[in-house]
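Fold it.
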Amino acid sequence: MTGIAEFAKKTVRCGALIVVSPLVVLYWLLRPVGRGDSLFASFSQTVSLFPGLLGSYLRIAFYRCTMRHCASDSYIGFGTLFSHRDTDLYSGVYIGPQCNIGLSAIHRNCLLGSGVHLLSGKKQHRFEDPDTPVRLQGGEFTKISLGENTWVGNGAIIMANVGRDCIIGAGTVVTNDIPAGSIVTGNPGKVVRSRYSEPTQGVRT
């Protein structure tokens, strides 16, 4: 049964690649005259609108041909947008609907709930000069990392690196790097405990 299921998935993936191939070709034709990530983000808006499970297969097929790295067994929910082509999605990643993914590396078996925002670092906009509009002061995009086997709750905002095996609570705002195995909640996000901590009761010495 497992072999049949895998064969069916491979067949659907091949079909999805055929369906999105005109978009892929158009993207690469426009890329030399496009504005880099702006062009990529525009195509991301288009493919985000494909509904259902089939929509995820179509998105994965498109991003495998255009993104820096996108594993075939990832899942990308409806309405999720990507703003940078230099993004990595590794095996077993689940991204819920209505997420906004900036410049990032999302490692194996990460789970993102709905409405999660991964920002491209925390220096995207400079605002030091009060006499100059913020939009004209520029900024810096930093690639952030979401460690393997991390779970991010609905509506969380992340603008710093998160270690592996972490749990980021719903609505949490992460502004500083988080060590591996942490459970983080609040705004700003704070480590409430470690998943690696050993229980103290009943331990024999």
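The helical segments are 2-30, 37-47, 52-66.
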